[in-house]
Amino acid sequence: MAFEPSLREVLQPKALQPARDVLLSLPEHQRGTLWFVNVLSGLGAWVASLFLMIFLGIFFLGGSNINAIVTGLLITAGAVMLRRANSHGFITQLALSAGLAGQGFFLVGVEGLWGNETATIFAAFVLQFVLLFVYPDTLQRFLSTLFASLSLLYLLRVHAPAVVADVALVALTTIAHVLLLQQGRLQSRDWEARLVTPTLFGLITTLFGVLLLRTWFHGFYQDVFRKGGETPMGVLTLGLAAVTLYSAWRVMEETQAGPGGAAGVTAFAALALTALLTLNTPGVIAALGVLMLGFHRRNAVLLGLAVLFILVFGVSYYYDLKMSLLAKSLALLGSGLLMLGLRLFIARRFPVAGEAP
Predict the structure, then answer these.
(1) What torsion do the CA atoms of 128, 130, 133, 136 make, to the nearest 10 degrees?
(2) H helical segments located in 26-137
(3) Is 280 helix (H, G, I), strand (E, B) or coil?
(4) Stated pTM of the model
(5) How many CA atoms lie within 13 A of 116 on its CB side?
(6) pLDDT tens digits, 177-207
(7) Is residue 167 scored above 70 in pLDDT?
(8) Distance between CA 186 and CA 194 in Å, rounded?
(9) Burial letters 65-102, b for 16+ CB under 10 A, else e
(10) Most buried pick, 36, 174, 324, 354, via CB within 10 A?
């Protein structure tokens, strides 16, 4: 059996002292809590919240929409105050589940009172926008960003020309890219640090969700928005390509890779060519932009999302080609050889420091 020394045997006591000080500075409930204890606490909080909501739904609402709105707002406000007062695992999950139930009560009451889909979605947008700033929880802020973004896009798609919703989607994508590019500076500030990560993940999830709907469920998308027209997919692709090219420029500036040199020209040409070849599948260039920023920020979750959706949108691009199966196969073979050739050219033309060209 191989001898495997412990950290206590490898490190001197003085080297362990900083970690010990940090551990002792944590609240008592965060010290050494076993993972299954946290899971059971969270499960108990959700069950308790479920029974509470059933009780309120049966005995207090009484079919009154005003009661539903007031009760929902009171429960949501109580969840915010409870979460701000205590960060224990049980309290965190209880506040989250109760807050989500309160939001549901509120929206059901709005829908029943006005009977108008637009009023309900606008109310959801306002509520989620407020919770994004006042609710101190990463998951709730992610959900608030996601639901607020989707509500905004829906309202614009229904009540404005179709191109406005596409411009808004490109604008939301730009915000996500800027948050990633400025992540280090923003997270140095305590208040902004709590907003950056859930907001950018909510915006990126919105981007991929909308593009997935328009690409794989295009018939359903047309049925939902049958009253309005639809802009060509190429317009959206070019907008997302412009955002990706801007981010590539900023990444090369930050890494001092010379965006105006041969390396920059090669990268920009490859991105532009990809966008032109996939005009009817905007998800490809959008996923490439997220992949680039995820690699730049060493974010494994973003990398995983980007790779997954590159495959998803790549399959969609393949099936959308108006070609025979033989022509599609040759196109895939040719594009693969082209990418391998481009990889060889970049490796030889721009070798990494310390590697032989």
Answers:
(1) -70
(2) 35-59, 65-85, 89-114, 117-134
(3) coil
(4) 0.78
(5) 7
(6) 998 888 877 766 666 667 888 899 999 999 9
(7) yes
(8) 10
(9) beebbbbbbebbeebbebbeeeebbbbbbbbbbbbbbb
(10) 174
DSSP string, 229-247: ----HHHHHHHHHHHHHHH
> Which tokens go with 192?
């902004």
Among 145, 148, 169, smallest CA distance to 157 is for 169
Beta-sheet strands, E only, within 135-277:
none
Using only the alpha carbons of the chain, give its radius of gyration.
25
Tokens of 73: 């707002």
In the numeric block, the tokens 């959008």 are attached to 286
And the tokens for 317?
């691009």
Relative orientation angle of helices 89-114 and 117-134, to the nearest 10 degrees: 160
Identity of residue 226: R
Residue with tokens 């939301």: 172
Long-range contacts from 218-222, C-beta under 8 angstroms, 24+ separation: none
